[in-house]
C-alpha cells in the first residue's frame, strides 16, 4: 500500500520525513510537524520547514516512521 493510499484511508500523515536542503546540498531527517505548509505530504514536494528557528526551503525525499493524526 502506498503512503498516499494510507493517508487517504486513515486520515493520518507520516511522523517523519527525509528532507533535502538545496541551498546547503545536505539532507536531514525530521518530524513532519516542522513543515509550515498545509496539505498532503508527498515525496518530491517542495516545502518550507522551520529548521532550527529559520524558514528554509526543502524537498521531501521520503516519508516514513510512525503515524500521527493530522488535524
Q: What is the number of beta strands?
A: 4
Low-confidence stretches: 66-71
Classify the secondary structure makeup into a structural class: mainly beta
Order of helices and strands: HEEEE
Order of strands, main sheet, comes to 2-1-4-3
Structure description:
The structure is a single chain. This protein is mostly beta strands and 71 residues long. 11% of the residues lie in helices and 54% in strands. It has one domain (3-69). The chain has one helix at 3-10, and strands spanning 12-21, 26-31, 46-51, 54-69. Strands 2-1-4-3 form a 4-stranded antiparallel beta sheet, with helices on one face. Strand 3 and strand 4 form a beta hairpin. The longest helix is centred in the N-terminal third of the chain and has 8 residues, at 3-10. The protein is globular and about 35 Å long. The two termini are 22 Å apart.
Write the layout of secondary structure elements.
Blueprint: H1 3-10, E1 12-21, E2 26-31, E3 46-51, E4 54-69
Amino acid at each position: 500500500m502506498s503512503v498516499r493510499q494510507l493517508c487517504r484511508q486513515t486520515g493520518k500523515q507520516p511522523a517523519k520525513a527525509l528532507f533535502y536542503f538545496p541551498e546547503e546540498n545536505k539532507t536531514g531527517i525530521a518530524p513532519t510537524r516542522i513543515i509550515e505548509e498545509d496539505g498532503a505530504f508527498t515525496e518530491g514536494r517542495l516545502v518550507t520547514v522551520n529548521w532550527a528557528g529559520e524558514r528554509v526551503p526543502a524537498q521531501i525525499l521520503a516519508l516514513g516512521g510512525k503515524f500521527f493524526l493530522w488535524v
